[in-house]
Each structure stands twice: as structure tokens, then as C-alpha cells.
């Protein structure tokens, strides 16, 4: 199965910096792979991350993300790349796709920097929820950017 997961920095703080973002995305991808899933691409913007990966029915997306998020925040804190303690927001969005959709989704994730010149993360996330017919309550959406 194929899944795109989207998660944000706690309080939506724009702290993912160009100087370390590629390394962070590589760490997240490797952590996803350590769970037995297969990372296709990890990319994002200053305040959030998109992960596209393949996983098996015996795996729970929540367990894959629990490992990737907790260990990547630990890596970031131990690396001392930021002045303050780093945390991800607790929640994440998870969206599944058919194999034929993967090239388009891969390109979408790959082009996050360009994409966010035209649209905010909140706008993007609302479109994703609506496109997948996900019922949601506004109070459970990612917090606004700080």
C-alpha cells in the first residue's frame, strides 16, 4: 500500500532550515525504512514534512510515524542544530493512494518549495482532507503558523 503522511513542527514554528533540511529528511526516510516500510520521498517546507512511502498491511501507519517522529526529533535535538528544544506536533494526516497515482504524488512532494509559494500549509492540508473526503473538525486541524 502507498501512503503520504503530513506532519508539522509543534506550534507550526518555521524552524526547518535550509542548512539541515536535506539531512533531516534523509534521517526521517531512513527511520521509516527501519520499520520495514519503504520510503519513496521525504520533503517539506519550513514548518511541515511530507513523507511518501510504501508499507504492508501488517504495519500500522501510526507505529511507523511514532518511530519516525520521535527518533527524528531526538536526532535533531542531539545534533544541536537549533537553539531551542525541537518537537513535532502530536497529530499527522495520512492519505493512501493507488500505485498509478504515485508518480503524481511523488512530484507533488518533490515540489513543496514551489508549491508553497502559491499556497499556505493550512490551505494545502484542507484541500487534501476534502479531496480524500475526510470528515474533520476545525479544532483538530494543525495550529496556525507562528
Question: How would you describe what is shown here?
Answer:
This protein is 41% helix and 18% strand. The protein has 146 residues and is an alpha+beta fold. The chain has a 4-stranded antiparallel β-sheet, sandwiched between helices. Helix 1 (18-34) crosses helix 2. The protein starts with a strand and ends in a 15-residue tail after the last helix. The mean pLDDT is 89.
Low-confidence stretches: none
Strand order of the largest sheet: 2-3-1-4
Count of DSSP-assigned helices: 5
**Major β-sheet annotation:** 4 strands, antiparallel
Q: What's the end-to-end separation, in Å?
A: 34 Å
Indicate the mean pLDDT.
89
Rg, nearest Å: 14 Å
Question: Shape, please?
Answer: globular
| Helicity, as a percent range | 40-55%
Order of helices and strands: EHEEHEHHH
Instruction: Tell me what portion of residues adopts beta-strand conformation.
Output: 15-25%
Number of strands: 4
| Class by alpha and beta content | alpha+beta
Amino acid at each position: 500500500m502507498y501512503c503520504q503522511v503530513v506532519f508539522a513542527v509543534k506550534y507550526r514554528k518555521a524552524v526547518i532550515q535550509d542548512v539541515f533540511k536535506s539531512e533531516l529528511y534523509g534521517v526521517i526516510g531512513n527511520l521509516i525504512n527501519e520499520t520495514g516500510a519503504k520510503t519513496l520521498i521525504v520533503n517539506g517546507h519550513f514548518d511541515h514534512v511530507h513523507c511518501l512511502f510504501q508499507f504492508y498491511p501488517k504495519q500500522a501507519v501510526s507505529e511507523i510515524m511514532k518511530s519516525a517522529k520521535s527518533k527524528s526529533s531526538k536526532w535533531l535535538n542531539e545534533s544541536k542544530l537549533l537553539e531551542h528544544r525541537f518537537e513535532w506536533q502530536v497529530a499527522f494526516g495520512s492519505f493512501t493512494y493507488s500505485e498509478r497515482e504515485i508518480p503524481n504524488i511523488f512530484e507533488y512532494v518533490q515540489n513543496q518549495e514551489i508549491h508553497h509559494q502559491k499556497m499556505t500549509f493550512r490551505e494545502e492540508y484542507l484541500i487534501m482532507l476534502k479531496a480524500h473526503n475526510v470528515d474533520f473538525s476545525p479544532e483538530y486541524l494543525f495550529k496556525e503558523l507562528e
